[in-house]
Design a protein that fits this description.
Blueprint: H1 2-33, E1 46-49, H2 69-73, E2 84-91, E3 99-107, E4 116-124, E5 131-132, E6 137-139
Antiparallel strand pairs: 1-2, 2-3, 3-4, 4-5, 4-6
Length: 143
């Protein structure tokens, strides 16, 4: 009886990291979008950080890993151990004046090469405020 409960709690604790960190990224992206003009509503895209998804372990990044201009603009950095890699993408919108973004976390929780992906999206439409879109896209939650 205790083993299934332990495994459920272990899985839930591993999923707290991407949910909380994406919440932080999105919150700061929305604040950034509400203080910038439509042409530059969100910071530029930044590649997955760290470049390699941690494989079944928690890692501590070398100094400077989170120094990219976009991570600084979003006031986001990880100073301790983490099991996910993050990216921020400013999406091209075909409607002039509209801006969108995606914040994504990738993790390989058991080191088998299969990656869990968590994504949250946001937008600022011409004349409106920046906001996060409802919900979170999750692919292979427990991979």
């Amino acid at each position: 009886m205790a083993v299934p409960a332990f495994l459920a709690n272990l899985s839930a604790s591993k999923l707290t990291e991407p949910v909380e960190n994406l919440r932080r990224i999105v919150s700061h992206a929305v604040a950034y979008g509400n203080t910038h003009t439509a042409l530059e509503s969100f910071p530029p895209s930044v590649a997955q950080t760290p470049a390699e998804v941690p494989k079944g372990v928690s890692v501590v990044d070398p100094q400077g890993t989170w120094d990219h201009l976009t991570w600084r603009a979003l006031d986001f950095r990880i100073t301790g151990e983490h099991s996910f890699a993050y990216e921020f993408t400013t999406l091209t919108d075909p409607v002039p004046g509209d801006c969108r973004f995606a914040a994504t976390a990738h993790g390989d929780l058991n080191g088998d090469g299969n990656v869990s992906t968590f994504s949250v999206y946001g937008e600022k439409l011409r004349g409106g405020d920046a906001h996060a879109l409802a919900g979170m896209y999750i692919d292979k939650e427990l991979e």
